[in-house]
Amino acid sequence: MAGISIGLVVSLMAIVIQISFAAMIFSGPLEFHAQRGMGLTLAGGAVLLAVTALFSGFRPTVNLPQDAPVAIFTGAAAGIAATLGTGHTEEAFITVVAALMLSTLATAAFFFLAAKKRLADYIRFMPYPVVAGFLAGTGWLLTKGSLEVMTGVSLSWDALPSLLSREILPFWTPGVVYAGLLFLGLRRWSHFLILPGSMVVALVLYHAALPLLGLDMAQARELGLFFSSFSSANIWPPFTPMDLQHVQWAALAREVPTLAVIPFIALLGLLLNTGGIELAARRDLDLNRELLVNSGGNALAALTGSHAGYSALSLSMLGFKTGADTRIVGLTAALVLAGTLLFGGQVLSIFPKALLGGFLLLIGLFFISDWIVDTRKRMPRPDYAVVLAVFATIGIFGYPHGVLLGLLATVALFTAKISRIPAIEAVSNISRTRSRKSRPIPHQHLLTVHGRSARLFKLNGFLFFGSVNSLTTSVMEALHDDSTRYILVDFQNVSGFDVSAVNNFVRLAQRMSSRNVAFLLAGPPDLFTDLLRQIGGEELARSCKIFPDVNAALEWCEDDIIHFAHAAMTEQSNQAKRDRDKLFDTVADDLLSELDRQERIESLLDTIWPYLEPRSFSPSQTLLGQGDLGPGMMFVRQGAVLERVTDASGGSSTLRTLGPGTFFSEPAAYGPWRSSHGYQAESAVQIALLTPKAFMELENITPEAARKIHRLVVAALIANLSTDLRSTEWTP
Fold this sequence. Notes:
Layout: H1 2-25, H2 34-55, E1 63-65, H3 67-84, H4 89-117, H5 120-123, H6 128-151, H7 169-188, H8 194-212, H9 217-223, H10 249-253, H11 256-259, H12 261-281, H13 287-304, E2 309-311, H14 313-321, H15 328-343, H16 345-348, H17 353-373, H18 381-397, H19 399-419, E3 424-429, H20 441-450, E4 454-463, H21 468-479, E5 486-497, H22 499-514, E6 518-522, H23 526-536, H24 538-543, E7 544-547, H25 550-569, H26 574-607, E8 613-617, E9 622-624, E10 633-638, E11 641-646, E12 652-658, E13 663-664, E14 678-681, E15 685-690, H27 692-701, H28 703-727
Parallel strand pairs: 4-5, 5-6, 6-7
Antiparallel strand pairs: 1-2, 3-4, 8-15, 9-14, 10-13, 10-15, 11-12, 11-14
């Protein structure tokens, strides 16, 4: 019973809403066909209610022809009537019906396409100010349409003074008072019976006032306070398929730009209302399912000549909040609307234009209040200016112009806001950030001294003409420093790019080529490299050094810096001699410490020799493969071992060269362990292997020697951690 009772309340409100929409579409020169228009909207409402009640994922959903599409379509209907003139009212009606059918079919197709291609995910990201401007503009069109329904006057700047005349004032004053009082009441109280109750009270009061004014129904109709008496109780069908031969396609074609906006606005309204239902009901809905259900409903509603529809948020939540979470709500309302089509024509004729227009005005006031007044409190001034601009454009020039401005504003807002996100995630230089390759102590010192000549830029996100400006500015600032000889750009965290970003890199490459500065690109996408070659030419592309990853680029920079530093120190000049002496003084202590460490390791190996397994390897032979289980901790006694790493693409690079007194695979001394690196003999190599079993014996028999090995392992882990941190040290 709860579903049926709520369905009856919904049907009463739906009837008033739909005949109000029909009165708005068929106003002015088309008012003669208002009765037939009511048949169109009521039939469309019955179809949409039935389809969505049966198939929607939200059981008490209420789907009706909606306000935003009708606000836009009213302009197209007026344009068709004006094009055909007063002598072709029948042709005008059937042409308007054809326009309604086409716009609703287009909406159904757009919903279907959005579901199949998941376009709704993109529409959701439309800037909030643009959406607010669209909806505020819809409120203005509804407000304007409400006055035209009540007065029969097509509003324009010239017609505004006539609204205050004694002849016109009585037509719209009751509707404005009704809408204003109801608007204030609903802003304060939200009981679901206020709206239908107010309709009944207003209807009774309006009819009670007629005798006091000395008017009967016939006189009131003659004055234009009511629609002309309906010809019969049956208002369906309002047209037949044979009538479509009278469609004036030329007049319809002129309104295509306006009609084309309706599917987009309907999709926007569906997404907003579905999101509101999810939030209010605290449940997730399958958006693609709702799109497909609404697509089917609109396709069937188009056959009745109705305008486009989608879920009504407030009416859909009515059953849910009152415990009627059932499909009976929508099915009951659909049956009542269908019954009204067949038997309720004379009942509809008792609704005064002031009540229908006042209801439209109420909807318009809520749109304007929600999207013009309330948004001002929660929106920055620049965004609010966009809302006002779109709203004003719709009010002055019409909805197509407002949509065009909104799309331009969307692009402008996107560009402005994403441009504020810098493309540079972090900056560094080789004094702080190194490759993974191990370097001798003198080379480490040279990189510390000369590493500032290599500037490193780590990029992030999507690169386009706005975001790349920050990189261009930073690179040009670096080039002002004469010591800069390398610019390295890391693309690892770049998600995409546009052609304008490639153009910026071409200009940067040209500037660096003229200044003899090396331009290194680490891990750029293949398409980026191809476009760089196409736009800048082969010669410019060759001047840019491309590396598969940032480690390879860093290693090349380090090698080049060391090479030039060595070359400078071998010169026969006083400055070169001072540099050599300074380098020797700086690294002497470190070299002595390294030699002392190697001596301690050799002494330790002599002590634990009975526990070690000697192994020999010839040049180029693999000691341990990357990903293989290590047999134990390996000490290098003679020769040189290359520590190498292979990346996902199959590229291999040498990290360090291990000589006598060094060790590797130390975790394998404690148990099973897979090596993250590969080890290859550079020359003939002698290895001493400490297996886990031998290590356990060593701990039991010679614990002091075992403790020394533990300390060696811990020191090696700390040193490796410090190296890893240094190789990834960037400044945000």
